[in-house]
Amino acid sequence: MKRVLITGAAGFLGSHLCDRMIQEGYHVMGMDNLLTGSLDNIEHLFKLRQFEYYHHDVSKFVHVPGKLDYILHFASPASPIDYLQMPIQTLKVGALGTHNLLGLAKDKGARILVASTSEVYGDPLVHPQKEDYWGNVNPVGPRGVYDEAKRFLEAITMAYHNFHKVDTRIVRIFNTYGPRMRLNDGRALPAFFSQAIRGEGLTVFGDGSQTRSFCYVDDLVEGIYRLLLSDYALPVNIGNPQEITILDFAEEIIGLVGNPRARIVYRELPEDDPKVRQPDITLARELLGWEPKVPRREGLMRTYEYFKKYVGNLSQEKA
Ligand code: UDP
Description:
Rossmann fold; UDP-galactose 4-epimerase, domain 1; 2 domains; 13 strands; 40% helix; globular; binds uridine-5'-diphosphate
């Protein structure tokens, strides 16, 4: 049985990757320090013999017993309010954590896939973003701690690949959504859903004309799985090219939830908020035969089912 270590296992993407790898017949070692992740996301896996959990901060030396075939490095605070509140941990997990895991991959002879981000493109001057665009990042702005940590992650991963011949993969992930996103992580989609369900104002930042392109989590996981099994070491964009303004997105969610008290309220635009973002996925199409399959409406419906339960429970707790 092939053995895979997944860091950030209790997070949104990490937990979906645990599910997928177990489904594919792997033995999964999930690692997390629960800084932003939650055991609720992997609770259902603890009863399985193919699953083990390690509570550990990967910024410190990482070791797991036995043979290791693959590492998926997905540990990191990933939403803007998280990395504003945890700037040092964000830098450390992207830099020191990645270094530790590359060292582990080298030691074990494992293949490692690291999670990079569309944030390496910063506030992009090229649209849509292709892998050969170098980006427009402010290193000392509020997002710098995440963006630069991930840029370092890419650099050190390529260094281990070129210098130590470690078998590496780099995925550049664009905005992704789905069940298990944290309701209070401050991102647009969970914020809009909880506000719409509660009948509050949906907080659109700026005039809402900035765009994002949202990928449903199952599509993303499929792309990552294919990239892991490919033989391509340079970065690959995985995301859904369907682009929408944040204002239209908020209105779409109001329409879907159908709470007559929900409405749009405008709030100040955060510093360095990227104005546009859309992946060019030509490379993923050619290399992996991959493209997203779940239309936004379908993905939003599935996510709504999840949030409905969650928001319901939270209001019950408060009552
Ligand atoms: N945004 C918003 N209202 C919110 C949260 C976010 O209008 O309550 C905007 C944010 O300014 C950005 C976009 O929605 O332009 C996506 O933000 P998110 O934090 O989801 O992810 P990002 O792509 O910025 O990392």
